Amino acid sequence: MTGVRIDKWLWAARFFKTRALAKKAIEGGKVHYNGTRVKTSKTVETGALIKVPQGWDLWEVEVLAVSDQRRGAPEARELYRETPESQARRERETESRRLANQAMSAPPVRPDKKQRREIQRFQRQRPEE
């Protein structure tokens, strides 16, 4: 197989659950193929660099194989290799998010009726100009 549409490849590589979600991300300009935005009909070839958003992370992968069939996760991981820079960046950002979430503490209890009214009153106040 020489080439496959990028939406099919992203779906087969398990970056997106459905081809419709892959198509939506591509049309929204989120997916970059060799550094440029692409259309859904773009043909994927081996050796290409693709940037794919996944939740909070941005994956930068090199295409190793081309497939238009969705297989199991271990086989899907054989279709691409993540660049070392991308992997280091994702790990660094994950660690910083974990530390930021750890620093924020949840309130010990829910506010009662009086406290809720005070919060709402505070939120309605406008800064004096």
UniProtKB/TrEMBL annotation:
Keywords: DNA-binding, RNA-binding. Gene3D superfamilies: RNA-binding S4 domain. SUPFAM superfamilies: Alpha-L RNA-binding motif (SSF55174). Coiled coil: none annotated. CDD domains: S4 (cd00165). InterPro entries: HSP15 (IPR025708), S4_RNA-bd (IPR002942), S4_RNA-bd_sf (IPR036986). Residues 69-98, 110-129 have a biased composition (Basic and acidic residues). Residues 4-71 form the RNA-binding S4 domain. Residues 69-129 are annotated as: Disordered. Belongs to the HSP15 family. This is Heat shock protein 15. It comes from Modicisalibacter luteus.
